[in-house]
Write a structure and sequence with these properties.
Structural class: mainly beta
Number of strands: 42
Shape: globular
Strand content: over 45%
Largest sheet: 9 strands, antiparallel
Length: 529
């Protein structure tokens, strides 16, 4: 059996691809680096992380990117020995306008190196490439309408793509206007038995999310909507453990079995916060005699039958990262800037991750944060930190993080009358506050161990000077603020100013608001579920 979600934690908008006997999944990364996260499988049930596609500034610049901006809904495809990734780098979405430039990168190996990005259009987001049997390729995306009084989703457009030059040919054509569910986006096209099948995401990315199917004899339409719609949704079943089901892509095994990869959310209770973010799940697909795809019950399930493939599990990821490897492991991500020697190092002190203090927690520039996705409702994150703060402007510790406006932070700093000490700080929708606690004096030198225990909806921080005796730092904190639902903020007229599209992270954070880039050394970062 396949147990859903197959990619727990923040892994939304899955684009699934088979090349030979290998299956690959690409998911959105938004403001996190590296951009476009990849996973690999041989049996669709077991997946291993490969890291990211967009790993350096020449490939992706997220400087100043808004929360939940950045890389939206990439599409991974393959043709004539070349991998293609198309993606949107969302620079802005508030105020009625959308800044959504799209790009394509290519590589002859899934591990890269990837070519410099070639710009495409900026008419809409969620791009995908379809490579037809006649050798022609097409770029699809949604079409955005910024005009006041118009719905922003104006349907799905297609435009021919020249694989030799990476350029678009001709003008875009609207091929599908969507259904009454609205919010038509996330297009993917497949060809089967003489039909072109168009999958789209509709209903918005929340509780009414769904996968819609339409088909046509020509790629450019006209498309007929499946009379049994949607293919998949949890909109009418709020008690299902998997919610928000939508934004799907299809894959076929060599034996002819079809599966849909799609996103889901796991609320704490019925229609409650989804702290783990939007995750990736799978569902088997069968085809009717009339040629329409079907999923049993048209709803997401926690377990589904696996395909007829030999089981291929991967070695388990070690719980502890001792930072002895020459490069940062694929479980880690950085915020808005790539891992680079000008602010982070695995070599300055062997067996340690050194982070030089970056800008403030609310900054969208030069943030020194290395973090990993929260994948379970109950988990523990522990690490040691060693630093020599000389003022309240210098901080280093561990964080439970959602975005610049929602986080909890336990950190080593300096305070008048105490010297080196541990404190707590939280931010809730941009409102900075100090949770009730007594600052804890610690030895003037040496490492301090910090621990975050997450048992949703509660989060607790603890500390230890020797690694054996642990002391609570404050009381339980509300982890619900680390959710998509809590992060969304709208203006009084209902226009969304801040979106919530990611998920909770646990990580290592360092700040130096004096601008002196105080070094903080982290060791023995352990994540257990």
């Amino acid at each position: 059996m396949i147990r859903n979600p197959i990619l727990p934690g923040f892994h939304p908008d899955p684009s699934i691809l088979r090349v030979g006997e290998d299956y690959y999944l690409a998911t959105s990364t938004f403001e996190w680096m590296p951009g476009v996260r990849l996973h690999h499988s041989r049996d669709l049930a077991h997946w291993r992380p490969l890291g990211g596609v967009l790993t350096e500034p020449r490939l992706l610049d997220l400087t100043g990117t808004p929360d939940s901006g950045g890389v939206w809904a990439p599409c991974l495809s393959y043709a004539d020995g070349v991998f293609y990734v198309v993606f949107t780098n969302v620079a802005g979405y508030a105020g009625g306008f959308w800044d959504v430039p799209n790009h394509v990168v290519t590589a002859t190996s899934i591990e890269g190196p990837w070519s410099d990005p070639v710009p495409l259009h900026a008419r809409g987001f969620d791009p995908s490439l379809f490579h037809d049997e006649d050798g022609r390729s097409w770029l699809l995306s949604n079409d955005l309408d910024w005009r006041p009084g118009h719905h922003w989703s104006a349907g799905i457009i297609a435009q021919e793509f020249d694989r030799d030059t990476g350029k678009l040919l001709g003008e875009p054509v609207t091929i599908f206007s969507g259904t009454p569910a609205l919010y038509t986006e996330g297009p993917h096209v497949y060809r089967r038995d003489g039909w072109y099948y168009l999958l789209t995401a509709e209903g918005g990315t929340g509780w009414d999310h769904q996968v819609t199917v339409a088909r046509a004899r020509s790629l450019l339409g006209p498309y007929q909507v499946d009379p049994v719609t949607p293919l998949l949704s949890a909109a009418r079943e709020p008690r299902l453990p998997l919610q928000k089901a939508g934004h799907g892509s299809l894959v076929q095994t060599p034996a002819g079995q079809w599966y849909l990869a799609y996103l889901v959310g796991r609320p704490l209770t019925e229609r409650d916060e989804c702290v783990l973010g939007r995750e990736t799940a799978l569902a088997p697909v069968h085809w009717t005699a009339e040629g329409w795809p079907r999923i049993e019950g048209a709803r997401p399930a926690l377990t589904v039958p696996a395909p007829d493939l030999p089981a291929h599990p991967w070695p388990a990821e070690p719980e502890t990262d001792d930072f002895a490897a020459p490069v940062l492991g694929p479980q880690w991500s950085t915020l808005r800037r790539p891992f680079h020697a000008d602010w982070a190092s695995l070599h300055a002190r062997p067996g340690h991750l050194r982070l030089h203090g970056g800008r403030s927690p609310s900054s969208k520039f030069d943030t020194s944060l290395v973090a990993r996705r929260v994948t379970a409702a109950k988990c523990t994150f522990t690490a040691s930190v060693e630093a020599d703060p000389r003022s309240p402007q210098q901080l280093a510790g561990i964080t439970a993080y959602y975005n610049t406006r929602n986080w909890h932070y336990a950190y080593l700093t300096w305070r008048e009358g105490l010297g080196r000490c541990l404190e707590l700080l939280s931010c809730d929708r941009g409102r900075l506050h100090r949770p009730a606690h007594v600052p804890a004096p610690v030895p003037p030198t040496g490492p301090i161990r910090l621990r975050a225990d997450l048992d949703l909806p509660d989060l607790r921080f603890s500390w230890s000077a020797d690694g054996d005796t642990w002391h609570r730092l404050g009381s339980a904190l509300d982890a619900r603020i680390l959710s998509d639902e809590h992060a969304i903020e709208a203006s009084p007229d209902g226009v969304f100013q801040i979106w919530g599209f990611t998920g909770a992270f646990l990580g290592l954070w360092s700040h130096d608001l004096s601008g002196n880039a105080m070094p903080a050394d982290f060791a023995h970062a352990t994540y257990t579920v």
